[in-house]
Write the structure tokens for this entry.
Amino acid sequence: MSAAAPSATMGGPAPVPATGSSALVPVGDAPGHLVSKAAFDPQSAVRLTPEQEHFYLASQWMLMWWKFKRHKVAVASAVILLLMYGSTLVTEFLVPYNLHSRHPDFIYASPQSVHWVHEGKLVGPFVYPLIKTLNMDTLKREYSEDTAKPYPVRFFCSGDKYEFWGLFEASFHLVCPPEGASLFMLGTDRLGRDVLSRIFYGARISLTIGLLGIFISFVLGLVFGGIAGYFGGIPDMLIQRVIEIIRSFPELPLWMALSAVLPVTWSPLLVYFGITGILALLDWTGLARAVRSKLLALREEDYCTAARLMGASPKRIITRHLLPGFMSHLIAAASLSIPSMILGETALSFLGIGLRPPITSWGVLLNEAQNINVVALYPWLMAPVIPVIIVILAFNFFGDGLRDAADPYR
Amino acid sequence: MLRYVVNRILLMIPTLIAISIIVFAIIQLPPGNYLESYIAELQSQGESVDPQKIAFLKQEYGLDKPLPEQYLRWAAGMLKGDFGYSFEFNLPVTKVVGDRMFLTIIVSAFTILFTWAVAFPIGIYSATHQYSWGDYGLSLLGFLGIAIPNFMLALVMLYVANVVFGTTIGGLMDPSFIGKPWSWAKVVSILEHSWIPVFIIGAGGTAGMIRKMRANLLDELQKQYVVTARAKGLPPGKVLRKYPLRMALNFFISDIGSLLPHIISGAEITAVVLSLPTTGPMLLQALKSQDMYLAGSFLMFLAFMIVVGVLISDLALVALDPRIRLQGGVAR
């Protein structure tokens, strides 16, 4: 401004004060200093101690990590989830039996407990073999333990053969049943399959369906929410309406309808992807709304205006300033919506219209416990619900911790 | 006010049309149409197919017509109260459904009342006693309510009732009333039987509601008007009753929009486990046998219920909240 003022009044005698830096130069004997050539040092007034520097100059993700660490329950949940997901990589090695190994002699065997002390002596973990008797009154198989001789459980041993990741054959297990006895820690089902081993195998499907589903719904949410928030106007209105309509459907019945119309001819693997897609198809609306509102809010922030004035391109503004600003919130929101997906799959498979048998998820396992008679006679078939509850709780606490940490400056 | 109500109701129409198009698309999704597979099945069993009936059905649904025309026929029929034809039961859908839809409404309404009755006092307690043992205990209970799938809760309750108490639960009324016309005794019987399903269905939603109520009330309690009210010497109970609670009440009603889909989902699956005479078991059966017109009308009905529920909650909000009433803005 000050440079333009004199030029406008050119011609006449200018009583205007001298412009620019010359105004700052004091009259008379000037000190030898006009403008410091040295680089600006923001710390010239107060120098930060190394500890302070460590704290004040930490990156956003570092701050989040510190804040997350303070939420003890969330950290514990994260560890549990990590262990569970880790176990799916080496399921074959961890469990005593294979997914499909049947034991016709032990149908509906009740859970076998692992003992430590035999006749007053410490033996280490061992089991007593099961004896089956058929109760002629109720026609129910009854199992009792033969406590004559302890059968120590074997560790790092060879048992059922499996194909590890479809790469090579192996028979190496962490625990195996003792020779001449069985190891059904959570009992067996109607075909004499070990429930515990099947729960471990089921984790593969149940846990990945949540991750895969959230990935799809994350992408959908980013794209549609991004379009709505960035372009505004008609696309925004259209997308908002679609979201409203999808949200006015009851989730489960719509999931049921969609998964029931998956062609029967599809292979189980295809059905797995189909179900994942269906779960994600109805889940993205929440994320899209979050993306949209965050985009709308952050676009108007001062730092965004500042970046624009400094000449940053839209691409740079979005990737450098907007995305990091709400990515953490989105990740937290996504981790909070994984449980509903896992529950959805479990419910669908429980009802018998989700995944189909050779593929085993926790819901497929619970499908066996659908009948009240089964539940009353063989309550251990309800065991797969325990990991479901643990995972849901863990994801909830983990997501809570992430959400708190997502805003580390508060 | 009247203008707002009319506007709001008019706004429902495009939503319902869009929903009906989606439902119709789902009905059409299974490869081939039901009629063809039905005829094939009858022929494979060696039964004769009544050509007259086939012709009637074909004509009724315009199965030989293009899809848009089929949709219009179906939608127009729905407006007249004709929901289509259940191929599995060989009856019009309205006859098959009977009072299942009505019972679904009753159970859902009870569940909402239950959710409110439980979540309201507990939410207030948790918020006013933040970080106390009571708060922690109730929060844990709430988290468990979210984490336990309600079909599992239903099974466990069945198991407990069966093994511990030696009684059976399930059903919505005494068996002697099934199929009987409505009477006072039948209503009483339904009331007696419905509290267990209502508890099971409501558990998850209640837990979520408590968490939201707590968070909302905590936000309100930190606002300056509360400080002002305290500073002028109002007793704590009165401060709570007079100001923040009224704000929270708003949220209770406006939250129906997200609560209702949740409750209906829970009601469907719980009904399957407890074999309640509501839409759940029949929807599942219809889907399994791909009796798509029956399934479609159930889906349409459930979605319609939610849309109407949200409408009622919006209207109630207008009546309750002067800010919305005076500005004439749309709630939410």
